[in-house]
Amino acid sequence: MRALCYEKPASAEAIVKLLGDGVALLAGGTDLLAQIRSRLVRPALLVDIKGAEELRQLRRGGDGLSIGAAVFLNRLLEERDTLAGHRALTEAVADLASYPIRNRATLVGNVANASPCADTVPPLVVMDARVELLGPAGARQVPVVELITGNRETTRAADELVTRVIVPPLPHGGWSGFLKHKRVRGHDLALASAALLRDPERRRLRLSVGSCSPRPVLVELDDMYGKPDVEEAVRRCQGGIQPIDDVRASIEYRRDMVAVMVHRLFAKMSRDGGAA
């Protein structure tokens, strides 16, 4: 059996120097360690990113939220003032897995893992969130909607590190919301999920659907900003998804649940008066 080596560098730059084929990045490890135990992946080197102080930073600035790759999910809930105005993201994090798992799992890990049922991806997509990748050639930023190209597939190169997620400020008077449908109450994966964003400054209306396609689905509804047509929004969402039959739900059931969630999100927005 091949030995598994372990490193815990003290900076993002030092982490990048270790990257390449056969290297796995460890943040929370909630998914990676399960894959290693099941021998689905067999890395030669495990690089723990939690030793890099800059990756543990959570801050709010002029460009919005900056959430480091080693920031655990429960910290986002504990520091709700930092996330004020980003309701859809907070709702998604609160409904993700269980409390003990959120004490280990990270937002960057949930995104970069590129699972179709990642709860935080739909809110990040409608909010125009970006990830920052650091590699030998320097840093670059990629929209979350473009980062994920398929089931557990991304545009991140083997020698690049996702250092943080950047979420732009929600516009004044804006509104966002998130809904998740699962088999049971409590800890379960999404059968389908959806996020809605209303942006009064740019008169934008955006929907994103999760767990119904290999990659994120973004539906632009700007043309109905002043007079929302919920049935047309449902039609466009259902036309943009590619649900599958599996042991958890059928194609038809997922399509029906998307319709239900779109109706509920618009009703929720209407009740709230469009305010975040």
Describe what this molecule looks like in 3D.
The protein is an alpha+beta fold and 276 residues long. The chain has 2 domains: 51-167, Uridine Diphospho-n-acetylenolpyruvylglucosamine Reductase, domain 3 (2-Layer Sandwich), CATH 3.30.465; 175-272, CO dehydrogenase flavoprotein, C-terminal domain (Enolase-like, domain 1), CATH 3.30.390. The chain is 29% helix and 25% strand. The chain contains 10 helices and 14 strands. The strands form 4 sheets. It has a 5-stranded antiparallel beta sheet. Strands 11-12-13-14 form a 4-stranded antiparallel beta sheet. The chain has a 3-stranded parallel beta sheet with strand order 1-3-2, with no helix packed on it. Helix 9 (230-240) runs antiparallel to helix 10 (251-272). The longest helix has 22 residues, at 251-272. The model has no long low-confidence stretch (mean pLDDT 94).
Any descriptors?
14 strands; 29% helix; alpha+beta; Uridine Diphospho-n-acetylenolpyruvylglucosamine Reductase, domain 3; four-stranded antiparallel beta sheet; 276 residues; single chain; Enolase-like, domain 1
Topology:
Layout: E1 5-7, H1 12-18, E2 23-26, H2 32-37, E3 45-48, E4 58-61, E5 64-68, H3 73-78, H4 87-94, H5 99-102, H6 107-112, H7 121-126, E6 130-135, E7 138-143, H8 144-147, E8 148-150, E9 153-154, E10 161-167, E11 175-181, E12 192-199, E13 204-210, E14 217-220, H9 230-240, H10 251-272
Parallel strand pairs: 1-3, 2-3
Antiparallel strand pairs: 4-5, 5-10, 6-7, 6-10, 8-9, 11-12, 12-13, 13-14
Helix pairs in contact: 9-10
